[in-house]
Amino acid sequence: MSRFVERHPAWALISIIAIAVGLWLVFAVWPPGLEEAIGRKRVFLNAVFNGITLGGLYFLVASGFTLIFGLMRNVNLAHGSLYLFGGYVGYAISTATGSWLLSFIVAFILTALVGVLLQLIVFRRMEGQDLRQTMVTIGLSIVFADLMLWACGGDFYQIQTPNWLIGPIELPLVTAIKSSGEPVYLRYPLVRLVIFAASVVIGVAMWLALNRTRAGMIIRAGVDDRDILAATGVRIQLVFVAVFALGAGLAGIAGVVGGTFQSLSPGEDIRFLLASLVVVIVGGMGSIPGAALGALIIGLAEQLGSVYIPTYAIVVTFLIMVLVLAIRPQGLLARR
Amino acid sequence: MSLAHDARVAVRPADVAQRPARTWPEINNPAAWIVAVILLIMPLIASGFFLIEIFATTLILGIMALSLMFLAGYGGMVSLMQLTIAGFSAYMVAVFGVSGNANISLGWPWWLAVPMALALATAFGTLGGALAVRTEGIYTIMITLAIGAAFYYFTNQNWAIFNGHTGINTVATPHFWGVNWRADIPFYYVVLAVAALCYFAVEYLSRAPFGLALQGVRDNPRRMAALGFNVNAHRVAAYAFASFVAALAGVLQVWNYRQISPGSVSVGACIDVLIIAVVGGITRPIGPFIGALIFVLLRTFALDFLVRLGLDGNRFRLLIGLGFLAIVFWSSDGVIGLWQRWRQSRRPAANRPGGGRGHG
Predict the structure, then answer these.
(1) How far is residue B337 from each of residues A215, B275, B340, B343, measured CA to CA in Å?
(2) For residue B153, which of A26, A241, A314, B111 is within the disulfide window of CB 3.0 to 4.6 Å?
(3) Rounded to an integer, what distance in angstroms lies between the CA atom of residue A244 and that of residue A238?
(4) With 0-12 CB in 10 A as exposed, 13-18 as middle and 19+ as buried, what is A113?
């Protein structure tokens, strides 16, 4: 951090000012002039929270994507299909058993299994041929999309939120002051906060596992140079299978999350594939912190954009991507 | 310098095994002449449905896939936004020309609207290309896919220019010299002429100094840079040319369907173009047209075929996906590669070092 400040004092100053302004916007009671200029604070806070929680969901999808890419150089364009598959599995389990938590576990295991099969049957046979692997994942995503359309139809599904998570809670953030002088606090759906907290926990756990354990060390070594890693006697195929399973399983979990606070339907696979593409392009391919930062930026941009410039929300996302590509083509937090 | 280029080309056996490098390849090939004659007299053979729905559509999709083939085969850049460029050009024809949505269309005559659309679409594609060449290989796929998807969502949301998800309908088609150029037979010949033009342009460029330099950039960018070539400029120029080809296809497409909507530029359709090019084979310009024919035939007749087999006719995309997977698995060079391998196995004496083993 201090190195960054030393090297780019101007950028550091700009980001500090931006963060300070953001914090002030979130915590302070807005003066009337500001409310007239850009609307109610409640709307703004809701957009910010929606953006952050959406960022959590994007992070879950994109972290698996970036992990698989980082280690195996495999752009898994079937990642969106894994997301949707996980969502459908979660829906089936939660309607059958009524247990929301169980649906996460089953969705994780089943999508991880699909990932293992993909790695063993398909990708291991064309190792090192990036482009061919990518083509195969495109073909797979078409096949999966059609199979899921066959099995589940074109309806919208929404996974039932469990009772203990239904309803809003009050957050200690003042949105306005009533004329009586009594502060009004922000009310926000509990389930989204819980899911966001869970994705933060998963992210931190992944970071710890990658940076503090032996398995993580092997994976990081594989990202840097898998040939040398294989030469040191590590069973690289086993590592590949495990990482693919983890990445796919994360997509499955994300599917259940997405099915809970949005909905599942054909076409969502492409939407989330696009989201994870943009997130990893912005954040940096193969970097977990990059995926987190990218997911946060894209989630916030999407939600704030859809509140303040509704027609061009998608263009904002795209402009961010263009900007990053123009300034730092390797992504914000990538090393190379 | 040119020696180095020729050496590069000589490594690619498919083109030059039997003939010197810089002649037209098909001139001595009777099969090519037969195909050309059949294409020319097609209106005598085929009815209106086959002429437009099968052959004209094949040629239009073939032109789009050809632009991808040019980028992927000669430049090593797999761009998924070729359909987006075509769609952009189609939208521009509808916006500048005459259409049923009078509040949007400017009502220019076609001979003004079409050049405008071509110019804008080429500029759009070149800009996208300039963005994409900042990265390499599989990253290019991701970025161009993201551009394509962004354009799709943008057309869905923007009502001022792109008229949201309803799109622009009843686009006027050209009508001059007393001929309705959208009538079946004239339109077929227009499409055929454009397709032939694009095909020979790509064929010519692949042998011109620019095309050779591009292939050099594909095979070894660092060496080309060391030789003094501007690698990125060559790549962007390739994008510009491919964008122009795709834009031509877009104009034909909007005349064919007389309407354009976000559905025509969806992500699935972008990927279809890639499928067409890969199934046909991305090492030679004829590949995309073969792929397009297979794709259109499948799309048109798979439903009847599946129903006749007692299966669900809606599973046509499954069939396409599985076919695509099979091609990618067993032949990195599409149908052309399979055909060449089959011929090789029939003529083991012919000395062809690893013919058509690809860069796909």
Answers:
(1) 42, 15, 5, 10
(2) A314
(3) 10
(4) middle
User: Nearest CB to B142: which of A281, A310, A317?
Assistant: A281
**How far apart are alpha carbons B318 and A137 in whole angstroms?**
14
| Dihedral sign, Cα of residue B320, residue B326, residue B332, residue B334 | negative
State pLDDT tens for residues B327-354: 877 766 777 777 777 877 776 554 444 4
| Chain centre distance of CA A230 | 30
Give the tens place of pLDDT for each residue, B35-94.
Answer: 777 777 777 777 777 777 788 888 899 999 999 989 888 888 888 888 999 999 988 888
The chain-wide mean pLDDT, for chain B, equals: 78
CB spacing of B321 vs A143 below 8 angstroms: yes
Structure tokens at A121: 């049957």
Answer yes or no: is the ipTM higher than 0.90: no
Instruction: State how far the Cα of B112 lies from the Cα of B96, in Å rounded to an integer.
Output: 8
A58, HSE (Cβ side, Cα atoms, 13 Å): 32
Strands B175-176 and A168-177: what pairing?
unpaired
Query: What is the CATH number that goes with domain A31-327?
Result: 1.10.3470
Strand partners, A264: A157
Helices B184-207 and B57-69: crossing angle in degrees, nearest 10, is 20
Per CB-CB distance under 8 Å, the chain A contacts of B149 are 270, 274, 277
Half-sphere exposure (CA, 13 Å, Cβ side) for A108?
12
Which residue of A75, A81, A138 is the best one to mutate when testing the B interface, meaning the one whose CB has the most B CBs within 10 A?
Answer: A138
Whether residue A193 contacts residue A53, with contact meaning beta carbons closer than 8 Å, is answered with yes
Per-residue pLDDT averaged across A214-237, rounded? 83
User: What is the pTM for the complete model shown?
Assistant: 0.79
**C-alpha to C-alpha distance for B116 and B149, rounded to whole angstroms:** 24
Extended beta strands in B115-155, E state: none
Q: What is B229-250 written as a DSSP string?
A: --HHHHHHHHHHHHHHHHHHHH
Query: CB distance A270–B153 less than 8 Å?
Result: no
Mean pLDDT over A185-207 rounds to 85
- Report in angstroms the alpha-carbon separations of A168 from A42, A44, A121, A323, B219: 14, 17, 46, 37, 59
Half-sphere exposure of residue B240, counting CA atoms within 13 Å on the CB side?
A: 10
Mutation site for B-interface testing, chosen from A143, A324, A336 by largest number of B Cβ within 10 Å: A143
Residue B179 β-bridge partners: B176
Q: Are B224 and B212 within 8 A, CB to CB?
A: no
Residue B289 near residue B297, CB atoms below 8 Å: no
Task: Report the alpha-carbon distance of residue A151 to residue B190 in Å, rounded.
Answer: 43
CA distance B84 to B64: 10
Class of the CATH-defined domain B2-346: mainly alpha
> Residue B332: its chain A contacts at CB < 8 A?
132
Angstroms from A275 CA to nearest CA on chain B: 9
SS3 at position A127? coil
CB B287 within 8 A of CB B202: no
B164 vs A259: CA distance, rounded Å: 27
- Find chain B residues with C-beta within 8 A of A280's C-beta: 142
